[in-house]
Amino acid sequence: MKLVITSAIRNNCVEEVKYKESNILQKLAEKYFDDKSYCPEVENYRILWESTPPKYMLFFVQRRPKYTFDKLFIPRISATPPFRIQKELVITVQVPFAEYSVQDTKIGGWNVIGKAILAYLREMKYPVVLRKKFDRERFNSDMEAFFRSVGCTLE
How far apart are CA 91 and CA 81, in angstroms? Predict the structure, then answer.
């Protein structure tokens, strides 16, 4: 299974350093979850976390997890070739902006991200197609073990 943790930092005052730190976290997660499988129907698991300032929270809508079994995308721009998405589960997590923006260390930012992702995963309802097949408990415990392995304290 391929796990991708990507960020959508929507604030121009957040330094480029935080963006680089999130890229490091993404690479570590890809390496950690490379040989793990929780369900044959999920080959790609994408976690998109967003840290939105309070004045823009009106535009943030918490979406339900989206599962795509097989879909062909044909872009409107003719220079981009069509591409196919297969067996992908996408979730969006809101990371508290007030806590994340004041963190001055890499591990401190990862702590906030880890707490938000784990809290969301514990209460998340999986799509109906995956509810009985996806090993939720093992995935949540592996996600917690991953954040602890990179140095996070999740209390």
Answer: 25
Residue 110 DSSP SS3: helix
Contacts of 127 (CB under 8 A, 6+ apart): 64, 65, 66, 67, 89
- The C-alpha atoms of residue 5 and residue 129 are separated, in whole angstroms, by 22
Please state, rounded to an integer, the average pLDDT across all residues of the chain.
85
Pairing of strands 83-94, 66-73: antiparallel
Residue 109 buriedness (CB in 10 A; 0-12 / 13-18 / 19+): buried
pLDDT in tens, 31-54: 999 999 999 999 999 999 888 777
DSSP secondary structure string for all residues of 14-74:
S-HHHHHHHHHHHHHHHHHTTT--S-TT-SEEEEEEEE--GGGGGG---PPPEEEEEEEE-
Confidence at residue 37, expressed as pLDDT on a 0 to 100 scale: 92
Give the SS3 label for residue 93. strand
**For the chain, domain boundaries:** 2-149
